[in-house]
Write a structure and sequence with these properties.
The protein has about 850 residues and is mainly α. The chain has seven domains: about 100 residues, no CATH class; about 130 residues, 5 helical Cullin repeat like, CATH 1.20.1310; about 110 residues, Up-down Bundle (5 helical Cullin repeat like), CATH 1.20.1310; about 100 residues, 5 helical Cullin repeat like, CATH 1.20.1310; about 80 residues, no CATH class; about 120 residues, Cullin, Chain C, Domain 2 (Ribosomal Protein S5, domain 2, 2-Layer Sandwich), CATH 3.30.230; about 90 residues, Winged helix-like DNA-binding domain superfamily/Winged helix DNA-binding domain (Arc Repressor Mutant, subunit A, Orthogonal Bundle), CATH 1.10.10. It has 35 helices and 13 strands. The strands form five sheets. The chain has a three-stranded mixed sheet. A three-stranded antiparallel sheet has the order 7-9-8. A three-stranded antiparallel sheet has the order 11-13-12. A hairpin with a 5-residue loop joins strand 1 and strand 2. It is elongated, with a radius of gyration of 53 Å. The N and C termini lie far apart (about 110 Å). One of its GO terms (molecular function) is ubiquitin protein ligase binding. It comes from Trichuris muris. Keywords: Isopeptide bond, Signal, Ubl conjugation, Ubl conjugation pathway.
């Protein structure tokens, strides 16, 4: 308890307020009255207590205190106020004066100063904070707040200078952080208690005069007189940095002191990070940058990218943990940024391009963990992902070019193997993308772009891809279940999306599909329809319209052949021994070339064909049917017997070998001639069959080449290049020594390589002609919709519209525009010939629909 003098002062204040002319609202606010259950108001206990103390001080309890009397005599005047006793009698109380004299102000301040010093000395158990609050309240209420505020500053500063600073200076070289943290804890605890005592000054005086609050004043003084005192500031920063350096070296360090110091520096900023940044964070970041730079060179000296990225990743985790748990939250991102610059940005090219352990080595050895670690590190810094993608792109393009070159130089690598290699490479890249690069969209685009680059390096890539799909869909190919087949087709379609010349693929795919359908070699209709569905999804219905028409023709042909066989069974008495299976092909759907116009079919075969033709035309009037001998196949019963043996009467043969020869229609026409003559020249064969020279030479080479005992025909050549050329006077006869372990022997038609080059040029010319028409149709469609369009914009729209089938060259588009202008489909703007075109009149609708 304080001396009773303090009690009397506070009591006098309250009594004076109750009787004088001060506003009643002031008294009610301070006394905080509450309403009781009877509806009357009752003063709070502190007011009753002060009245009781007052009564005791003036002798009502039979006790007299001379100190209290002398203290109160200086401001109590002669005017008295009556107060009723408990027994009903009245007593007189002097009224409180309106003004405080200097001596009372000084005595009140001395009382508060002593109390503040006791609080700073942690000897506050004997203090009454209620009495201290009321004394401070009195001084502020009577306009002496400046004395109280300035006095507080002096007392706090004196304590910090004479006590706290001295203790800290004595501990500079021994337990600085422990001493400083304890001093800081004691100071903040004291300032909280002092702030509570001077709460009224905080609410009134501080706000009116725009000065620092009591607590903030204590922080500022501690900052200026202790933390930033000469010798302490620099030493504190160095101690903190040495502690962090020791932690980085793996030493055991009590980081709790670091956390307390950082919290102290943040608090000393008074709603600002300035003190923390200047005294710790800025030097910490500078020292960290130097440390990271030195450590990165130590890591690089091992010349191992995997080791480097793992150590850097470990360093990031450690720095993040320390900053997160012991420093300000904003420091973590800053120190990690410094680390990224020093250990990643400055060395990302070196690490990525390390010859024996860099990105390329990781890709070749499928080190997914290292790739993922490298990816995450490079993703942290600006430009890191571009470094990774550029190196990855260079590696993929090199791999693709090597495979293209391998196809050209290595004869063992077939087109099908080439596509298989690309699919395997794509599988590897997809695995890297998902397992190492977290399906990053930018990397995915780079991979697709690189595959498109080297896939289109070879202009025959569309043909190769079609051959690959044909190989997988043909019956008799490598056994695969439905799931495996669907998977491999999906992978092939990924490559198809990257093709630029999809129209060339369409042409070859129709050729290969036609052979599968006509020869009944397709693995299943469901698999074929699945491919068509995927092509329709990628390129639209127009792309697959003809392919779907081919399937429809096969179905209609199957239905028609059922009808034909029923008719044949009714006419079986005619004695025909030839069975025929025909496919009705719609012109325009099938990629058929012009057959030999004068090809002579054996009479028996032609008679059977005419019957089938008449039956078809009888139910389909207005149509014409033309035989396509270059697409047909024939099974021939062939009898081979040694020289000198003749056919006996009755049709039997002695010592003969019977085989079924699977040949083309052209081969059948040639072989049937040898039923009439034993030996024929090439000129005679050409005259008898009417087959064009190109097809006939290919046919004769296929029948007369191979192993001696596996050739169907023997040949007496008159030219030097027997394997490639046939002379007009070359003679042919049946090989009587023909032998084969197989009863059913397939005689393939050889492809003359000398004819492949002209055929490819012819195919290319047809495709170019078709493209010209498609480009013109696209131009007319666009201009019909837009009416007027600038030249560059028109070219861009044409390319965009046609890119699902092929990517036209800008030069081709310009030439087609000029052609349309010449033919008056388009006209130039007379004001700007180079930049704008207009549609003139109505365009040819047939051209638009192409």
């Amino acid at each position: 308890m304080l001396p009773l003098t303090g009690m009397l002062v506070m009591t006098s204040i309250v009594c004076a307020c109750a009787k004088t002319s001060l506003p009643r609202r002031t008294v009610i606010k301070e006394e905080n009255r509450t309403k009781n259950s009877h509806g009357s108001f009752k003063a709070i206990s502190c007011f009753a207590t002060t009245i009781a103390i007052l009564l005791r001080s003036i002798g009502l309890n039979g006790t007299y205190n001379p100190l209290m009397q002398s203290t109160s005599s200086s401001f109590v005047n002669k005017k008295m106020t009556s107060v009723r006793r408990e027994g009903g009698s009245r007593m007189r109380i002097r009224a409180f004066p309106m003004n405080m004299d200097e001596s009372y102000v000084q005595s009140t301040w001395e009382l508060l100063r002593c109390a503040i010093q006791m609080i700073q000395s942690q000897n506050n158990s004997v203090l009454s904070f209620e009495e201290l609050y009321r004394n401070a309240y009195t001084m502020v209420l009577h306009k002496h707040g400046d004395k109280l505020y300035n006095g507080l500053r002096e007392v706090v500063m004196e304590h910090l200078v004479n006590k706290v600073r001295v203790d800290v200076l004595n501990a500079l070289n021994n337990n600085l952080l422990e001493v400083l943290n304890k001093a800081w804890h004691d100071h903040t605890t004291s300032m909280v208690m002092i702030r509570d005592i001077l709460m009224y000054m905080d609410r009134v005086y501080v706000q009116q005069h725009c000065v620092d609050s009591v607590y903030n004043l204590g922080l500022i003084l501690f900052r200026d007189e202790v933390i930033r005192y000469e010798g302490i500031r620099e030493h504190l920063t160095e101690v903190l940095l040495k502690m962090i350096a020791a932690k980085r070296q793996g030493d055991a360090v009590q980081l709790v002191h670091l956390k307390t110091a950082c919290q102290m520096l943040l608090a000393l900023g008074v709603n600002s990070r300035a003190v923390y940044e200047e005294d710790f964070e800025a030097p910490f970041l500078l020292r960290s940058a130097d440390f990271f730079q030195r450590e990165s060179h130590v890591f690089l000296s091992e010349e191992n990218a995997s080791v480097y990225i793992r150590k850097v990743n470990q360093r990031i985790n450690e720095e993040s943990s320390v900053a997160k748990h012991y420093m300000d939250a904003n420091t973590e991102s800053k120190v990690i940024k410094v680390l990224e610059v020093e250990m990643i940005s400055k060395h990302m090219y070196t690490v990525t391009e390390m010859e024996a352990s860099g990105l390329v080595s990781m890709l070749k050895n499928s080190r997914f963990d290292d790739l993922n670690c490298l990816y995450r590190l490079l993703l942290r810094v600006e430009g890191g992902l571009s470094v990774l993608t550029s190196t990855l792109s260079e590696y993929l393009r090199e791999q693709g070019r090597s495979r293209v070159q391998e196809l050209k130089n290595d004869k063992s690598v077939t087109p099908i193997k080439f596509i298989q290699n690309l699919i395997e490479l794509k599988d590897d890249c997809d695995l890297f993308l998902t397992e190492a690069f977290e399906s990053n969209r930018e990397i995915s685009k780079i991979i697709a772009s690189d595959f498109a680059y080297f896939l289109n390096l070879d202009h025959r890539a569309p043909e190769y891809l079609s051959l690959f799909i044909d190989d997988r869909l043909r019956r008799g190919s490598k056994a695969m279940n439905e799931v495996e087949l669907e998977t491999i087709i999906d992978k092939a379609m990924v490559l198809f999306r990257l093709l630029q010349d999809k129209d060339i693929f369409e042409r070859y795919y129709k050729q290969h599909l036609g052979k599968r359908l006509l020869n009944s070699r397709t693995v299943s209709d469901d698999a074929e329809k699945s491919v068509i569905s995927k092509l329709r999804t990628e390129c639209g219905c127009q792309f697959t319209n003809k392919i779907e028409g081919m399937f429809k023709d096969v179905q209609l042909s199957s239905s028609f052949m059922k009808i034909y066989r029923e008719e044949r069974e009714r006419d079986f008495a005619t004695g025909s021994e030839i069975e025929i299976s025909a496919s009705i092909l719609t012109t325009g759907f099938w990629p058929t070339s012009n057959p030999s116009p004068n090809c002579v079919i054996p009479r028996a075969v032609e008679a059977t064909f005419e019957k089938l033709k008449m039956l078809y035309l009888s139910s389909h009037s207005g149509r014409s049917v033309t035989l396509q001998p270059h697409l047909g196949t024939v099974d021939i019963n062939a009898y081979f017997y040694p020289h000198g043996y003749d056919v006996l009467p009755g049709g039997s043969q002695q010592s003969s070998q019977k085989h079924i020869l699977c040949v083309s229609t052209y081969q059948m026409c040639v072989l049937m001639l040898f039923n009439e003559k034993c030996c024929l020249t090439y000129r005679q064969i050409a005259s008898e069959t009417g087959i064009v020279e190109k097809d006939l030479k290919r046919t004769m080479l296929s029948l007369s080449t191979g192993k001696p005992k596996q050739r169907v025909l023997c040949r007496l050549a008159t030219v030097d290049d027997v394997a490639r050329q046939i002379g007009d006077e070359d003679k042919f006869w049946v090989n009587e020594s023909f032998t084969s372990r197989l009863h059913r022997v397939k005689i393939p038609t050889l492809s003359n390589r000398s004819d492949q080059e002209p055929e490819q040029h012819e195919v290319r010319k047809k495709i170019d002609d078709q493209r010209k028409l498609e480009v013109e149709a696209a131009i007319v469609r666009i201009m019909k919709a837009r009416r007027a369009l600038r030249h560059d914009a028109l070219i861009t729209e044409v390319v965009d519209q046609l890119k699902r089938r092929f990517v036209p060259l800008h030069g081709m588009v310009k030439l087609r525009i000029e052609s349309l202008i010449d033919r008056e489909y388009l006209s130039r703007d007379p004001q700007d010939h180079k930049m704008q075109f207009e549609l003139r009149g109505l365009a040819n609708e047939a051209l638009i629909r192409r």
